[in-house]
């Protein structure tokens, strides 16, 4: 995402130093071009099945990001009323929006019924009952698909694996036919499809195809009972490169899916989040202090102004993010050494990266790479830290797409009298 122009580290022609001077740090910086080129890579790769893309809003829900994808023609995958409202405000197409999630509340269901969405991805028998009641009250059938849990190992971090039977998501394959029969008989429900999502940051095509095979064979047996549907939603989860791993091979997935679907007249939907936005974002921070170790085998710390409250992935999953010292050769007089890059938050788990060999000193800018997905969305105000600003670079210009939170916003809703 970073290119060097006349010795300056730039995102699509705009220097990171200039962005830091204009907007301060820590700041998330996104490349609109990069986001769109990932979308193109995905749609090209999945061209053999002409998949419908439903961008998983949770990966990065900034309105400007949603607007970019809406204008590029994607639909959306949401998991809350809040995400539905974001899609609307960004001008997204709610008739191509699917609603996932294990705990949909009555008010969220009512909101989605009123707005008119593509499909509710139902995750339990009780949810099916609730949907039927709410649709009856609303006076129009609710479009549904059942999210099945195919008990397939996505071979990813346990916190982001969702397709094993010990995970809370979806209904077991064995109970799905009965739910479909119920939905089929119910005039308040309209069966549209079937759904499955087995996890995130999946590196290999194999587990996704195994899950797809289970799903397609269930559609066959349901069709034999006269329960027809129009789409198969295979979820997201396509992995990206954070370090040395290979990027998920979307073209191989597209070819394998085409074989798997065969001649069935079913539209394929996918719900990618990370694949579209992770590698097109970085978190720009500045070194506040360095604490070089005085012992030969000790750990040296570079304390930056970004922290686990801004990007929690390293602390939460032990996730790796590459770190770049911005304009390293030009600005730094410091000698290279190995650093743990940590934030100001009062937790030993507050680190952004460990054991990185970089030339750092106070004032140096660093870019934490591949932070476009699950970065700002998981940011918090822990330690009463305002959340970072967000900047999007598009057509060679950096534009503020979310102001840095002000201190007054931190306690605007708190009451003392
Ligand atoms: N569809 C459903 C139903 C999901 O639960 C998710 C992600 C997605 C689609 C999009 O998955 P993706 O294509 O982004 O892998 N915070 C974690 C990731 C949590 C993923 C949650 N569900 C992380 O930072 O790695």
How many β strands by DSSP? 21
Question: Under the CATH scheme, which architecture of the largest domain would be assigned?
Answer: Alpha-Beta Barrel
Helical element count? 13
Helix content: 25-40%
Beta-strand percentage range: 25-35%
Q: Largest sheet, described in full?
A: 9 strands, mixed
Query: How many structural domains can be distinguished in the coordinates?
Result: 2
What hetero molecules are bound to the protein chains? ligand LLP
Fourth-level CATH superfamily of the largest domain: Alanine racemase
Give the CA-CA distance, first to last residue: 50 Å
Based on Cα principal axes, name the global outline. elongated
Contiguous runs where pLDDT drops below 50 for at least 5 residues = none
SS content category: alpha/beta
Descriptive account of the structure:
This protein is of the alpha/beta class. The protein has two domains: 162 residues, Lyase, Ornithine Decarboxylase, Chain A, domain 1 (Beta Barrel), CATH 2.40.37.10; 170 residues, TIM Barrel. Helices cover 29% and strands 25% of the residues. The chain contains 13 helices and 21 strands. The strands form three sheets. Strands 4, 14, 15, 16, 17, 18, 19, 20 and 21 form a nine-stranded mixed sheet that branches. Strands 5-6-7-8-9-11-12-13 form an eight-stranded parallel beta barrel, surrounded by four helices. It has a three-stranded antiparallel sheet with strand order 1-2-3. Helix 2 packs parallel to helix 9, helix 5 crosses helix 6 and helix 8 packs parallel to helix 9. The chain is elongated. The site of ligand LLP has 20 residues, from helix 10 and helix 11. Ligand LLP binds next to helix 10 and helix 11.
């Amino acid at each position: 995402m970073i290119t060097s122009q006349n010795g300056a580290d730039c995102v699509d022609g705009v220097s990171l130093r200039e962005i830091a001077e204009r907007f301060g740090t820590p700041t998330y910086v996104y490349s609109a071009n990069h986001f769109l080129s990932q979308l193109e890579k995905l749609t090209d790769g999945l061209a053999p099945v002409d998949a419908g893309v439903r961008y998983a809003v949770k990966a990065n829900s900034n309105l400007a990001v949603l607007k970019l994808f809406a204008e590029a023609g994607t639909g959306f995958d949401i998991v809350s009323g809040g995400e539905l409202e974001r899609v609307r405000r960004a001008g997204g197409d709610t008739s191509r929006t699917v609603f996932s999630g294990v705990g949909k509340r009555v008010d969220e269901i009512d909101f989605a019924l009123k707005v008119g969405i593509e499909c509710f991805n139902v995750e339990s028998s009780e949810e099916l009952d609730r949907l039927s009641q709410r649709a009856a009250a609303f006076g129009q059938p609710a479009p549904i698909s059942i999210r099945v849990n195919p008990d397939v190992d996505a071979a990813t971090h346990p916190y982001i694996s969702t397709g094993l039977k010990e995970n809370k998501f979806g209904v077991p394959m064995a109970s799905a036919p009965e739910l479909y029969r119920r939905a089929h008989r119910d005039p308040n429900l309209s069966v549209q499809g079937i759904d499955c999502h087995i996890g995130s940051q999946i590196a290999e095509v194999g587990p996704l195809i195994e899950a797809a095979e289970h799903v397609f064979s269930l559609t066959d047996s349901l069709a034999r009972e006269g329960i027809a549907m129009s789409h198969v939603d295979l979820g997201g989860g396509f992995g990206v490169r954070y370090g040395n791993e290979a990027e998920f091979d979307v073209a191989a997935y597209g070819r394998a899916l085409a074989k798997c679907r065969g001649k069935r007249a079913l539209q394929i939907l996918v719900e990618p989040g990370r694949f579209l936005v992770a590698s097109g974002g970085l978190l720009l921070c500045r070194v506040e202090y360095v604490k070089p170790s005085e012992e030969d085998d000790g750990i040296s710390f570079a304390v930056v102004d970004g922290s686990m409250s801004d990007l929690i992935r390293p602390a939460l999953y032990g996730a790796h993010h590459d770190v770049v010292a911005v304009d390293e050769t030009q600005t730094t007089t410091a000698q290279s050494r190995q650093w743990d890059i940590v934030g100001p938050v009062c937790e030993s788990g507050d680190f952004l990266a460990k054991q990185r060999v970089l030339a750092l000193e106070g004032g140096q800018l660093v870019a934490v790479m591949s932070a476009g997905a699950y970065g700002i969305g998981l940011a918090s105000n822990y330690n009463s830290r305002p959340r970072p600003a967000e900047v999007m670079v598009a057509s060679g210009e950096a534009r503020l797409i979310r102001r840095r939170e002000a201190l007054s916003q931190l306690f605007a809703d708190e009451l003392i009298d």
